[in-house]
Specification:
This protein has one domain. The protein has one helix and no strands. With 84 residues, it is mainly alpha-helical. It is rod-shaped. Helix content is 83%, strand content 0%. One of its GO terms (cellular component) is nucleus.
């Protein structure tokens, strides 16, 4: 059977099938690129999280040390008998 433009029905099906295959391949490539980008972002965020956890730990230790220094300084300025 011939349709408008001289193409056959079978020919139109083949063209549509080919376009569909190309479109599907492009979609797979986009998905692969997207997943690659996500993997890079995950690694970057994991690294940043690790750095922030380390910084948090350092600041906690520093804070504890400064509190102890402040406590010792306050006690020594008042004198042992004044605090009672």
């Amino acid at each position: 059977m011939v349709i408008k433009g001289g193409a056959t029905i079978a020919g139109c099906g083949a063209v549509r099938l080919l376009r569909n295959r190309v479109s599907a391949q492009q979609a797979r490539e986009r998905k692969k690129a997207y997943l690659g980008d996500l993997e890079v972002k995950v690694k970057d965020l994991e690294k940043k999280n690790s750095e922030l956890e380390e910084r948090h730990s350092t600041l906690q230790n520093e804070n504890q040390m400064l509190r102890q220094i402040l406590k010792n300084t306050t006690v020594s300025r008042r004198g042992p008998s004044e605090g009672q």
